[in-house]
Amino acid sequence: MEKPNYICRCEEVTWEEVLESIRNGADTLDAVKKATRAGLGYCQGKSCKRLVAQAIAAETGTPVAQLLPGSVRPPVGAVELSLLAATDWGEKGEEDEN
To answer: What sign does the CA torsion over 27, 64, 48, 20 have?
Structure first.
């Protein structure tokens, strides 16, 4: 398998950084994520999670099926789009001073 330069393009984590974290004891997806930030970017691991799992499997001998799916954390609560779109603190998000 040809190794891509970046295993996680969102966070710009290289293949070597992932391998180094595995060699330093990170043997799960979550451990690699904590050590390198791989999977914490915009795509939330949709494009790199399988590559990280393959790297862990190659280094540790653990089957990929045992590593996936990893932890998935949905948003804690709903967020109003108007809050996200606000450009001025006076529009939304500014706390009342009462």
So the answer is: positive
